[in-house]
Amino acid sequence: MLTFTSPMFTLLLLLLLPTTIIAQPYKSADHYQLDCGSSSTTTTSDRIWDSDELSTFIPSNIATASFTSTPFRRDPSVPQTPYSTARIFNTSSFTYTFPVSEGPKFLRLYFYPATYSGLTPNQSFFSVSSNGYSLLTNFSAFLAASFMAETRSNAGADGPRVPNLVKEFIVYVKDTRNLTVTFAPSPNSYAFINGIEVVSMPKNMYFERSDLNHVGQTTGPIIQNNTALENMYRLNMGGRHLSGNEDTGMYRSWDPDNNYIYSAAIGLTPLYQDPIMYTTETPNYTAPELVYQTQRSMGNQSDKYNLTWILPVDSGFYYKLRLHFCNIIPQYTKRGQAVFTIFINNQTAEKEIDLFYLTQGTGYPVFKDYVVFVHDPDGSRRKQDMWVAMHPNHRSELYYDAYLNGLEAFKLSSEGSLASPNPEVSREYPPQRPSSPVIENQKSTPYATIIGGVVGGLVVLTILVLVAFLRTRVKHIGNVGDWPLKSPKSCHPSLPLAQCRRFSLEEVEVATCEFSDKCVIGRGGFGMVYKGYIDNATTVVAIKRLKKSSNQGFREFRTEIGFLSKLRHVQLVSLVGYCDDQGEMILVYDYMPNGTLQEHLYRSNNPPLSWKRRLHICIGAAKGLNYLHTGANRVIIHRDVKSTNILLDENWVAKLSDFGLSRLGPKDRSKNHVSTNSEGYLRVHGSGILPNGPTH
């Protein structure tokens, strides 16, 4: 008979625990670092950068196909290496060739958009390809860096006006055993590069993994050696920036997540000081210890909001997201104590994830991979926000928490291309395509500088005057406050550009069997609600079709999209998408199997709700309202809370719906007295609650 002290039991226990790995960091088979434009080898932070001019990786016509230059003025915050020199190409394409072993390689391109030999950075447009993949097309490093600076500035972070940037790609080298990188300037323009880095990685690091979770689809792409990837984000949640030297041998940089966390509700950032216990499933090269030793968790505010990050990405591509987790909270000692839900781009990626079940202990890391498609409604491949959100599951109310340690986001190539349009930036950074040929000149004259400055000043002044004139003619629409975005293909000129899917009328007709009466699940003064099936009948949704004739209906339609496309919370109904073809006003939501709260209170054949369930529903609705009032960037007043607008999912979780009458509250949260003058809304007044009109 086995006892708890027997050697047999001890052996069995050890077999059930993850195998701990103690090993040195990954040793890269191939590692090249080129300081482009430099004439000598430089060393910085224990890393050696070789001169590309002295290397064997460049073609023999280097002298005629390119020239070297230094930035006219380098911002002191920009590192000296490799940004002190650049190689310029303005006549023809130029190819670097690196001999490497077979397998996946990190390819990092270093850019510092500055004035080089009289060539201004906003004149530079070029394409980059590697081993048959199109990585960048008509790319402007100036616009890309300006967008990055704008994003950082909007988050309240400091930094140079136009910073340096690194574009990181993953290219799988097959039996050719060569990695080629070709730069091709656009017509009447020039290309440049400051540094190139090539680093090997383990073959199964990101490729050919069978543990991919497809979000919103039953199937999706398998990342094989015919796919190229672009790293969009690599974040260290709750921690500091980690340089390449602090990585696990592959010189990846990890950025803090502060610039991407949504709202003022940023949670807690605990620190774990014990060693991380790597395993065979999560080897020590997966991510640095410093990533797993810090995290962002919800803490004691978990009932008020989602833990949410917003990541601008290019639409029209699949993305691979790797989420890194490690239980570093000593109170979590058994299954079921910290169970939470993961949402990616308004879709449920994990309904219940119990990380203690996955890791079996404190200090054991684990990662989960997800693939999601970011829809491109109008074919422009413009930037849009991808949301990653977490919320505690009601099953784990003992601690009721959610957390994340690290995140990596990769764009997957589509038909051999990763290219996307240059991002749009504010008028502070006016993009200018060159209208005349660029002259190869390595020195600019003082006269050219003066003339350029005068002309540039006149252009900027003209733009500012024009903007000021136009802004006086714009009518501000107040229902969605600070979100008056527009949809390029909308039939309605002031429809918000939603961070959600835009359906065609044909798709909606297929989903509802051409609006068949058999699919109707609700009706009212607004129109009809249908039960529908999308994505080849794999996803069930609720489809609300508003009456075309109603002007009030369009205002509510616009407001609903404006709010729900910006809000994510377990107690708010999720907007899947919308359709505005041919004057239609159609909203597509997650389907709520248990209908509205009203259907279970009176005039119904449904069995009565237990008092415990009623209490949970009330608490859930209150949490949703509390999030609107305290968790979002601005106070949001719903103005139409009633039993018909509280929906119940398959688990009887209450979700607020119908935001057509909602308004933004004051920017100053201290002004907590808000009169809505709306029928059916309970108005907060002093310490009591006074009804403003009839209530339900």
Features:
single chain, 696 residues, alpha+beta, Jelly Rolls, 5 domains, 12-stranded mixed sheet, 6-stranded mixed sheet, 9 helices, 29% strand, globular, disordered N terminus, disordered C terminus, Ser/Thr_kinase_AS, nucleotide-binding
Can you put this structure into words, describing what you see?
By secondary structure, this protein is of the alpha+beta class. It folds into 5 domains: 182 residues, Galactose-binding lectin (Jelly Rolls), CATH 2.60.120; 206 residues, Jelly Rolls (Sandwich), CATH 2.60.120; 30 residues; 90 residues, 2-Layer Sandwich (Phosphorylase Kinase, domain 1); 95 residues, Transferase(Phosphotransferase) domain 1 (Transferase(Phosphotransferase), domain 1). It is built from 9 helices and 37 strands. Strands 1, 2, 3, 7, 10, 13, 14, 15, 16, 19, 22 and 25 form a 12-stranded mixed β-sheet that branches. The chain has a 6-stranded mixed β-sheet with strand order 26-30-31-29-28-27, with helices on both faces. The chain has a 4-stranded antiparallel β-sheet with strand order 6-11-8-9, covered by helices on one side. Strand 33 and strand 34 form a beta hairpin.
